[in-house]
Design brief:
- The chain is built from 12 helices and 19 strands.
- The chain is α/β, with parallel strands linked by helices.
- A hairpin with a 4-residue loop joins β3 and β4.
- About 45% of the residues are buried.
- It binds ligand DWN and S-adenosyl-L-homocysteine.
- The site of ligand DWN has 21 residues, from α10 and α11.
């Protein structure tokens, strides 16, 4: 895919040749050769950070065609509502920036004059701009931080969920945050947890957009250089287990460092997140996971069961391409996202159909692409389950449930 840049980390996992995760294909492009890149994952023991080794330029992934909308699930809508209400009450921020505001699932709970969205995908930035929430359709960087501080002054809260892990230049991310944040201001980040990713064998957290899967250890290390520090951490359930990091300037004495920080650093060290051997063991579990998933799907096919996929996630693109699962094993995927429907999954070309209500009786088994929304999906498909319908998940090990 041309202009790769390499991150010089020690490789522990090779997930093969992969297409761009959110580039769902229209039928007319199926015969064209797709661009692919090698998805390898490495650990940098000096920086304590796990990342993909070859990165794709952001503009190729985050543009006006980006299909993912945060408001697509009840789970995320609820999580954002509860958290927005909580921090508004607790910190009473006069001015907030949200980096990666997507379709406004979090930002909409704020007063229009009190929050600024940053969202490089113009289709998404348009949604919130039209609703009257000032949204810059740009990538977060130093120039934008300068522009915002010039227009609005320094802000007292910066929030970013599931976005910083998508930005390669972390030094620029944090130096720009430092520039825009007031002396007593706070930064709250939310991203999938590396510890949970390893425990769940969730190798599908790795794809082109997820350059990093962070641990507390890695965040603490990155922040040092920028005179920032984590003063609290919460473990949350979203996206298969995430961390919410509360960060402040070192000079900010308004908040004391919670015991949780030390406790979680120890938990991560004890699990072995500092040791390369932990990642090698994860890689061998991933290989076993692949074989087992293929085996389960082949058994279903041999029994002539109708198997479909539930939730055409970016994560499933990694699984399907790594395991080489095509429509011989999964007939089609159902998805509620309009911009994914009637398209095909990149690489393996499984069709995506519109989800228009609970699954019908001609479906026997559904592979959970959106395993992170298992609870929400099981409620929605309670009749399917009552009828004896089954789900396949690869988390934490491939099995039929
Ligand atoms: O970090 C990222 C996360 C936040 O979102 C991005 N890089 C891209 C994206 O990743 P993903 O596609 O793996 O995210 P989700 O949130 O697991 O995607 C869920 C998908 O499943 C959506 O396409 C909607 C669909 N879905 C469905 O069809 N029926 C979801 C639910 C809950 C449902 O009931
Ligand atoms: N915050 C939302 C969206 C996560 S998807 C949620 O938690 O559901 C990742 C989002 O990050 C996308 O909307 C993408 O456009 C945005 N993004 C990617 N790179 C970015 C950058 N450099 N600056 C700001 N946003 C970025």
């Amino acid at each position: 895919m041309g202009n790769f840049e390499k991150l010089n980390n020690r490789k522990f996992l090779d997930l093969g040749m992969q297409p761009l995760a959110n580039s769902y294909l229209k039928k007319k492009y199926l015969k064209k050769r797709e661009k692919k890149y090698r998805l390898e994952i490495g650990f940098n023991s000096r920086k304590k950070i796990v990342s993909i080794l070859k990165t794709i330029p952001s503009k190729k992934m985050f543009n006006k065609y980006y299909p993912y909308k945060s408001s697509i699930s009840k789970t995320m809508k609820k999580s954002f509502k509860i958290f927005a209400t909580k921090i508004k009450k607790k910190y009473k921020p006069k001015c907030t920036i949200e980096i990666g505001s997507n379709d406004g699932a979090f930002l909409k709970y704020f007063n229009k004059n009190n929050i600024i969205g940053i969202e490089p995908c113009k289709n998404l930035a348009n949604i919130t701009n039209k609703k009257g929430f000032k949204t810059y359709p740009f990538f977060w960087n130093r120039n934008l931080a300068k522009l915002i501080t010039k227009n609005y002054g320094k802000v007292d809260l910066i929030y970013s969920a599931n976005t910083i892990s998508h930005i390669k230049n972390l030094d620029e991310v944090f130096s720009s945050i430092n520039l825009a944040l007031s002396t007593n201001g706070i930064l709250i980040l939310e991203d999938p947890s590396l510890l949970e990713c390893l425990k769940n064998n969730a190798y599908d957290q790795f794809y082109c957009e997820h350059i990093y899967v962070f641990s507390l250890l890695s965040i603490v290390n990155i922040l040092k250089k920028h005179e920032l520090e984590v003063f609290n951490i919460e473990k949350i359930k979203t996206h298969g287990g995430s961390n919410r990091y509360y960060i402040k300037k070192k000079s900010n004495k308004k908040y004391i460092i919670n015991q949780n920080v030390k406790k979680n650093l120890n938990i991560e060290r004890n699990f072995g997140l500092n040791n390369f051997s932990t990642y090698k063991r994860f890689a061998s579990r991933v290989k076993k996971s692949k074989l087992k998933l293929i085996k389960i799907l082949e058994i279903c096919r041999n029994k002539n069961l109708k198997v479909i996929g539930y939730g055409a996630t970016a994560k499933s693109v990694t699984v399907l391409n790594y395991c080489k699962i095509n429509k011989n094993l999964i007939s089609y995927f159902l998805d509620t996202t309009t911009d994914k429907q009637n398209k095909y999954i990149p690489g393996v070309h499984i069709p995506i159909k519109k989800y228009s209500g609970p699954m019908s009786s001609n479906i026997d088994v559904a592979y959970l692409g959106a395993w992170n929304f298992k609870n929400e999906i099981f409620v929605k498909e309670s009749n399917f389950i009552k009828r004896g319908g089954k789900f396949i998940t690869h988390i934490p090990q491939p099995k039929i449930v």
